[in-house]
Automatic annotation (TrEMBL):
InterPro entries the record matches: F-box-assoc_dom_typ1, F-box-assoc_interact_dom, F-box-like_dom_sf, F-box_dom, SCF_F-box_component
Pfam short name (any one): FBA_1
CDD domains, sorted: F-box_AtFBW1-like (cd22157)
Organism: Helianthus annuus (Common sunflower)
Entry-linked PANTHER family: BNACNNG10540D PROTEIN, F-BOX DOMAIN-CONTAINING PROTEIN
SMART domains in the record: FBOX
SUPFAM superfamilies referenced in this protein's UniProt entry, alphabetically: F-box domain
Domain F-box: 1-45
Signal sequence annotation: none
Protein name: F-box domain-containing protein
Length: 266
């Protein structure tokens, strides 16, 4: 029967199926399994038309909790608590970001960092080893997750500060991009990088992903008049389509504040 229906139409039909049916359809034939597991389908899958948009929320109740809440007139009563795969609970994982119904998490196994892109609806997860900068030394990577606006290809951006022996000298940034469609890391299309005086938030938790770009709260270190150093807050963005870093300056009233900033986008 399926041979009489164009494959593109089959894909559109399956995008509208409930999750339970979609999981069962992965075992019908290799072509359907390949389609459902493909990055393009994973990012475009939107469940049934009758389903409202959901908000993904995280909070701490002795341990990290994750919940999906329907963004409609029932808010906040229609909620689904998300349960991570049991094997992942064995690790101390971090949430890197979420976009288009996908979650990106990471954890360390020995000294190797591993990133996970997880579709919570169809319970499909893909792992990617996060490479270290050549040279043998283990550096602290800053990771960001998003989806390309044009290709809907999920991407992970990794930026690594490489410090010299002298702590007073500025860092040199090294950037790589992982694309789900190829399963490989490469240099970004655009070679521009954050300025060497930029410092990211210690825990990288001040981050927002919206409309195909990610925004980090960062600090710009500079020499002070008294011979010391001061930090002015700024925002560093990365466009997942152009693969380009940019800097968004904050007004003086915010850039010089010493309190903890909360980064959000309305």
């Amino acid at each position: 029967m399926s041979d009489n229906i164009p494959f593109e139409m089959q894909m559109e039909i399956m995008k509208k199926l409930p999750v339970k049916s979609l999981i069962q359809f992965r075992s019908v034939c290799k072509a359907w399994k390949s389609l459902i597991d493909s990055p393009d389908f994973i990012t475009q899958y939107n469940g049934q038309h009758t389903n409202p948009q959901h908000l993904f929320l995280t909070y701490c109740d002795y341990e990290d909790k994750y919940v999906s809440i329907a963004d409609d007139h029932t808010f906040p009563h229609h909620k689904v608590h998300l349960t991570f795969p049991e094997w992942l609970l064995e690790y101390d994982y971090d949430l890197i970001g979420c976009s288009h119904g996908l979650l990106c998490l990471s954890y360390y196994e020995d000294q190797t960092r591993i990133a996970i892109i997880w579709n919570i609806l169809i319970r499909k997860a893909i792992a990617a080893l996060v490479p270290n900068v050549a040279g043998g030394e283990v550096y602290k990577n800053v990771l960001g997750f998003g989806v390309c606006r044009e290709t809907t290809d999920p991407k992970i951006v990794k930026i690594t500060p490489i410090r010299s022996q002298s702590a007073m000298e500025s860092v040199t940034w090294h950037a790589e991009v992982f694309t789900l469609s190829t399963g490989t890391w490469r240099s970004p299309y655009n070679g521009n990088l954050p300025r060497s005086s930029i410092e990211f938030d210690s825990y990288c938790d001040q981050v927002v992903t919206i409309d195909g770009s990610i925004y980090w709260l960062a600090a710009d270190s500079m020499a002070d008049v008294d011979g010391g150093f001061r930090f002015d807050y700024t925002i560093i963005s990365f466009d997942f389509t152009r693969e380009e870093f940019k800097e968004v300056s904050l007004p003086d009233s915010l850039a010089h504040q010493r309190y903890k900033h909360i980064l959000s986008v309305a």
